[in-house]
Amino acid sequence: MNEGELIRPLLVLDGATKSFGAVKALVNGSVILYPGEAHALLGENGAGKSTLVKILAGVHQPDGGELRVDGDRVVFSGPAASRGAGVSIIYQEPTLFPDLTVAENIFMGRQPLGRGRAIDRRAMNAAAAKVFARLGVLLDPDRQARGLSVADQQIVEIAKALSLDAKVLVMDEPTAALTNVEVARLFEVMRTLRDQGAAVLFISHRLEEVFKSCQRVTVMRDGAFVRTAPIEDLTIDDIIRSMVGRDLESLFPKTATAPGDVVLEVDNLTREKVFYDISFSVCRGEIVALAGLVGAGRSEVARAIFGIDRRTSGSVRINGDLLSNGSPQAAMAAGLALVPEDRRQQGLVMELGIDQNVALASMRRLSRFGIIRRSRERTLATTWGKRLQLKFARLSNPVSTLSGGNQQKVVLGKWLARGPSLLIIDEPTRGIDVGTKAEVHRILDGLVAEGMAILMISSELPEVLGMADRVLVLHEGRMTAQLSRAEADEDSIMRAAAGLGSEEAA
Amino acid sequence: SSSSTSTTTNNTGSATATGVKKGLTVYYIPKDTQNPYEVLADKGGQAALQELGGKVVVSSGTADTAAAQIPSIQAAIQAKADAIVVAGNDPSALCPSLSQAQAAGIKVVSFDSDITCPNHLFINQADTKTIGTSEVDLLAKQIGSKGQIAILSAAASATNQNAWIKYMKVQLKKYPNMKLVSTVYGNDDPATSLTVLQGLLSAYPNLKGIISPTTVGISTAAQYLSTHKDVAKRVTLTGLGLPSQMRKYIKDGTVKAFELWNPSDLGYLAGYAAASLASGSASLQTGSKFTAGKLKQYTVIGPSGTTGPSVVLGPPTVFDKSNIDKFKF
Amino acid sequence: MSTTIETPPASQPRFAAGGALLRARELGIGLVIVIVFVVATLKNHAFANSHSVQQLLTGAALVALLGVGETLVIVTRNVDLSVGSVVGLSAYMVGTTFKHHPGFPVLLGFGLGIAIGALIGAINGLVVTALRVPSLVVTLAALYIIRGIDGVIVNGVTIDPGSVPKTFQEVGFQTILGVPWLAIIVAVVVAVVGYAMRSFRAARELYAIGSNPEAAALAGIPTERRVFTAFLVSGSLAGLAGALFLALHAQVDVTAGTGYEFLVVAAVVVGGVAIFGGSGTVLGAALGALLLNTINQALVSSKVSAFWNDAIAGALLLAAIAFDRWLSQRVARSLQSAEGAHRDV
Amino acid sequence: MSNTATVPPPAKTYGGVDSTQPAWRRLVRWEVALIVVLIGVLAFGSAESSTFISSSTFFFTGLNMGEIAIMALPLLLIVMVGEIDLSVASMLGLSGTVMGYLFQHGSSIWLAMAAALLVGAVGGALNGILIAGLGLPSIAVTIGTLTLFRGAAEIILPNPTTKLLPTSLTKIGIAPIQGTQLAYSAGIFIVLAVVCGVVLHATPLGRSLVAIGLQPEAAQFSGIRVNRIKFGLYVLSGIVCAFAGVLFTLKNSSASYGAGTGLELTVVAVVLFGGVSIFGGRGTVAGVVLSVIIVGALQQALTQMHVQAEIQNIVTGSLLLLSVIVPNGGDVLHRLRARLRVRDPQVRPTSA
Ligand SMILES: Nc1ncnc2c1ncn2[C@@H]1O[C@H](COP(=O)(O)OP(=O)(O)OP(=O)(O)O)[C@@H](O)[C@H]1O
Ligand SMILES: Nc1ncnc2c1ncn2[C@@H]1O[C@H](COP(=O)(O)OP(=O)(O)OP(=O)(O)O)[C@@H](O)[C@H]1O
Ligand SMILES: [Mg+2]
Ligand SMILES: [Mg+2]
To answer: Which atom of ligand 2 is closest in space to residue A459's alpha carbon?
Structure first.
């Protein structure tokens, strides 16, 4: 893209700063976007990527620095202003209106008007259908957004951004919840946009995607600009080094362990309309991965085992004895722990302090005569904070002030503090940077070494292949394969996930 | 609780000719601060105490509940008042507080709606029996003593209403062809009164007459009839109402006749009674006499049935075209 | 996903499902109203005569009108508890104006009522949006304050029919072709606002705000201005309702409109408006009000002892809420099972 | 605020808009403000009325606020989990009615009281089933039961009781606890408040309530029995309000179905004025206790000064408004400054 330097940049953010009270989210946010380029923005959790995005979106007003669009200095008083300037955003967390139709979600505030400035629904639905066609998805534009799967929610977000035909398209981890196929489609769309002279700012923790789709890379660390370079001048290791600020030892540390006796035994587990006849077992000292496409029903299996959802039929045994249906308390008593998929809603009470969150699952143990002892609570949090290398200012700070990776560590600590015999962990590293990723993997490896049994749900194949002793594959709520570490590879898992049936099944 | 005071200059404690001390403080505690009927009564009370060189404090809540009246009673105790004149929102819920007041040496007088507490004087607007019977007779005269009739009352728990209704039923025995088909309660709230009235009319298409022994009820009903001539043609309305509110309906013929006494006279009498009790110039003994200024002399009647010692203001006035303009309240 | 061709364009049937959701709510309530009406008529034929039908409409009119405004507010995930007190104040103010300025133009009377309501609505909206404080608390406080002010003004003096212009009162009872004026006015308001809520961007943004406030902000919706408007409308309609209250009763004391706040919220919820915002129609709210009033009058006319009214009304309210939930859950489930059908590889 | 799937709890303003508060704000607690207000009220009262600072004022305040205060405690807990109960006053009326009816018809006073409490438990359970069980919105449900309970009371006891209750019990309406100036109901409130305070602020259950109020789903995933706890709270509320109804009946030495009509708003106001967030998760018992005292003292002061009841309503409303505005004052200023920062010349981008 060297000839790119000759062209006038579409958008320039220069030395933007932003702090939230004590937290310095952005020290030097700088990025230059040229027409027709896909530009990757990389950095660890909490590096300040989303904050930078929210400044481009006009959600946050920067404390300092300047922003130029088409060479003119601009100040975005709010999202509307940003959009008006031709910048469209896909936020990290889906921002849908569950009560409105998919089409209205896409065109809110810009609905096509008919006679008497009244909204022309037919035209609106047609337009939405067009965008979906572009993305190669079939979603009913007239369907309520409530009940959309995580993936579909992300699809709608993308459609929303595309429908704006913006000069600058910013995507904050749009692929975190997508299937490879959808990701591939998204990349095609990105290409067409670039051909039309738009600029794309792409944020992802999946470096392989970045290499597939982007021309230039900007790396951030601790809220500050580190470097910008053409992709071809970089190797994965260069990028990781400048992200983490040090060399990184293997991403998937895996010490072979001999599986002990069976801890979890699932037999013909069924939940109507979600999954059917799931049977498997997990032993001490092994990591069993539950693979499949988003929407396959893996989380639901986990929820049913842990008792959040009631199972329609089938049985769950922990260390031999039956687990009563629909009771997380019973599951916890039996030594189960579930690190859920959605940190912000399910894993943590965002406004409670770090210590109180860590203690949340062990309050009884921490209290004497029914009174919680704060001292013990703090000790517990400190201990696990150390063991998990948690980065935080004060234990009493609300977890909302931590970055994604550190939030995930708090959830882990909360459950490990109970010393469970089986740990179910759903998307252990979704939206977590490589550095922290490696840490989390090391922690998991250490746990199985100590003889814990782990059931890991993951949408990232490398993670599955790297960490699992055995791989179970789900397709539309049915188990299509059980693969040993030896049998498991990219191809065999994807075939099973796609429901094409693997060799032995065929 | 709401208040307004009226004082007179000379406050020496010496007894006057009527044997009533000067400088007395009487707390008037109406059902609520807004009830127009009782606003008139309170004014009468203030006039009385003015004449006696005393002072009236009007104090009550905004809602017609006993709970809202209790703080006012407490204020009277705190202020070392000489007497309390109260219109009970509830027959007995006020008794504990009033007994505290009596323990503090405060004389208790009730008016408009009586209370069941011991040792108090009830100022009866008109003999309960008379009201009950006269209402029925008044209606009977207008509808030729036959047909279905109904009662539109205030709250189901209002003592005075229930007492009158009791005597109405007794009197109805004299009219075999008049049938009381229903009693509905409008809680002295225009909207509720209207709803129940409408329900009443659709439930009993050939209803002949309605008695509404409450000012809010009768005026609401009158307004409805005056705006629905077809209904007015077949339904006759009477009851207890304020001339000021009913004048229009008497004039346009919606209502032929209704009755009431002068509320301010009622308050005025209560004021004199309270002052006399507080001065010891009158007692709860049957036959005890006291003069009530312009209203001349009154005698305490002995307890009868649920009513304790009481004095009766006098027979109610019947208002119709002939006299309605004479009354300004 | 890649083989999207295989999956049939399931659009049509699901559109039906979506539409059914909207229709079913209003239909459901309409159905219940009819049932109550029929049962009441069977118990007492007089209930079906044109007269009592008119009464059903007039009786429900005011609450329905308030329900329309309340719907706008609740849809934005707020609530307005001050409506009852606004009715009281507006009714009395218009009344005194007529009393002390004989010959005050009738139409201006309504204008005055609306103006008073609008003022209070504006204040509510301003406090809620500018200071970002929960509307439930703000409007509860407003309820206390306005009632207080009303009491100070009224001070035991009733407005009596004599001082209310005849033509003004006629709005309260006159009918055109057997349809009460009140009902017509409310019907017009419902039609207009209902259409706007379906078809105008600003109105759709109200739903968006209630459905997901943060997303609304990100979508660049002027959240504060919209919420403010909702309160403004609610206040104005309450003011109008006050004027109509005066027209209907021709006499006003301090009790006017007491307890309406809960009645209105009840009607709105029965009408299928989600109490936590995002969905619901003004037509539903109006029907909810009609249902509650139908129930009340049916009870009286069916000669059920007056003492049973509240109990039965309360029970039916609970039933209505439960029914609505059951309905929406069924729809949601049908949507979920439908969803994902298209997501195969 | 439980039934919206993808929506974060309304109180949370993370993202969306700048949500951070200056450090000094954490020091300024609403409770402190309340104490200031209380001192103000006392000073004002004693200045305006010679009889204000007196043992009888103290007794009367307790006597008048007792039941309201007692009902405020379970409501506090319910609001903490993000729900509400508007049926409290109707339950007070219903339980009193049941008690009065049974006693009137010759059952022993103790049996009558027991029955009243039982009714409270049943009524609370009804709320609990509809709200925790079926997941219906509590504000709508309890408006329904508000009407239902009052109606039931009306059916049971159309006319007030006449049979006088045993004076040994009704004296709680006249006399303070021996040797003190404390009304019985107030005494009971203090005990309950202490218990409530310990439970809410120091026990796993209390912590669970906070978690549920802030983030129900996270609470559920942490093994907290969200629905069971909510159900329990409503049953508790029912019983406590029934108990308040018993006290109320004894205090008035008679029962009538209208008892406590309209008190629900007062109770809600007292709780909110105590600084409890209507969205749940935030609130203290201390705040509620202070607010009870302030409201009671204010009523006494104003009544003794012959201030119109209407004015008292205005004062109550204004205080309520302050209780939500003052704690937000910091944010408001913060936002205004943010606004001003944006106000500098806004250059519109021009497409080259
Ligand atoms: N509204 C806020 N209030 C307080 N702190 C915040 C806020 N938003 C972000 N932060 C903090 O600012 C830092 C940067 O956050 P940001 O979300 O930009 O990181 P990120 O690079 O997007 O991380 P991730 O890859 O996990 O999304 C983090 O420490 C985060 O906790
Ligand atoms: N928010 C939701 N509301 C309703 N249904 C959902 C929701 N999320 C998922 N589903 C449905 O539940 C099933 C499983 O979805 P889910 O995304 O949990 O599967 P998954 O394999 O756990 O995917 P992942 O864990 O990678 O997100 C699918 O049918 C999906 O459509
Ligand atoms: Mg981010
Ligand atoms: Mg999942």
So the answer is: 26
CB neighbours (10 Å) of residue B211? 28
**In the 8-state DSSP scheme, what is residue D163?**
S
Q: For A345-402, write each residue's pLDDT tens digit.
A: 899 999 899 999 999 999 988 888 888 988 899 999 999 988 888 888 888 889 988 8
Q: What is the pTM of this model?
A: 0.86
What are residue D84's phi and psi, to 5 degrees?
-150, 155
Query: Has residue D6 got a pLDDT over 50?
Result: no
Q: What pLDDT, on the 0 to 100 scale, is given for residue C9?
A: 35
Exposure class string for A247-286: b at 16+ Cβ within 10 A, else e: eeeebebbeebebeeebbbbeebebeebbbebebebbbbb
* Residue nearest (by alpha carbon) to ligand 2 atom 17: A295
Best interface-test mutation with D: which of C255, C275, C329 has the largest number of D CBs within 10 A?
Answer: C275
CA A434 distance to own-chain centroid: 13
**B178 in contact with C at a CB cutoff of 8 Å?**
no
Q: What is the DSSP letter of A221?
A: E
User: How far apart are the C-alpha atoms of B88 and D256, rounded to whole Å?
Assistant: 13
Tell me the DSSP string of C64-121: HHHHHHHHHHHHTT---TTHHHHHHHHHHHHHHHHHHSTT--HHHHHHHHHHHHHHHH
Looking at residue D130, what DSSP letter applies?
Answer: I
Which chains form contacts with chain C, at 3 or more CB pairs under 8 Å? A, B, D
Which one, of D155, D184, D160, D167, lies nearest residue D100 by Cα?
D160
Q: What are phi and psi of C253, to 5 degrees?
A: -125, -170
- Distance, in angstroms, between A458 CA and closest chain C CA? 18
Token pair of B67 as six digits: 């709970």
Reduce the DSSP state of residue D245 to 3 states and report it. Answer: helix
Q: State residue B16's pLDDT score.
A: 45
How far, in Å, CA of D263 to CA of D268, rounded?
Answer: 9
User: In this structure, what token pair is assigned to residue B38?
Assistant: 């009782």
* Nearest residue to A110 (alpha-carbon basis) of A85, A140, A133, A80: A80
Q: What is the pLDDT of residues C28-70, one digit of tens each?
A: 888 888 988 999 888 888 788 777 788 889 889 999 999 999 9
Helix residue ranges, H only, chain B: 36-51, 66-78, 95-103, 128-143, 159-172, 190-203, 215-227, 229-234, 243-251, 263-279
Q: Is the pLDDT of residue B94 over 80?
A: yes
Query: Residues B42-49: what's their mean pLDDT?
Result: 93
Angle at A294 (CA atoms; ends A291, A299), nearest 5 degrees: 70
**Contact criterion met (CB < 8 Å) for A152 and C343:** yes
Q: How far apart are the first and last CA of chain C?
A: 4
- Nearest Cα of chain D lies from the Cα of C234 at a distance, in angstroms, of 19
